[in-house]
Amino acid sequence: MITDDTQNTNTAPEVKETETLDEVSELLKCTLERDEYLAGWQRAKADFVNFKKASDQARLAILDDAVKIVIRDILPIADGFDQALFLTKPDAETNGDSLKIGISNLQKALNAFFEKYEISTFGTVGDKFDPLLHNAVSLIDSETKDDTIAEIHKRGYQCKNGILRPAYVSVYNKKDN
Questions:
Q1: 0.70 cut: is pTM over it?
Q2: Could you tell me if 149 and 135 are in contact, meaning their C-beta atoms sit under 8 angstroms apart?
Q3: What is the pLDDT of residues 113-158, one digit of tens each?
Q4: Which of 5, 50, 121, 152 is the most exposed place for a label (fewest CB within 10 A)?
């Protein structure tokens, strides 16, 4: 609540004997005008607070909807994992080929998900090491190569122009003779 000395607006200013009727009229007019401006400012402030609350709620609803869309799109991949686990049970009547096909289908579904959301991988053996894209987990001594990726432990992922996760790599380190 706003506290202000101007809130007591229902009382007319005291009139001294020396003040003229015109001065009192002008003072009363200014007091009414002040009260009108104050009420307008208070309404505008309340409107802004209500707008801010409504826009925050709308933003959260949009974010919630976006998360639901992404989760729905990844559910087929979860289903694929369920199928792959079923194929690995000893009582399931399967052979190695069906498990390989199931895992291949799972990878295709994951790649389709990545393509839909413009997610790509990076980091291959032989690339130049870039600390902005790669996280070196180990160094491998080499006679000839330096700052080149030797092994990929985990692929890096990017979405549009942002890095989701750096690639975890081993890097060649040229030995000093």
A1: no
A2: no
A3: 889 888 898 989 999 999 999 999 999 998 888 889 999 999 899 9
A4: 5
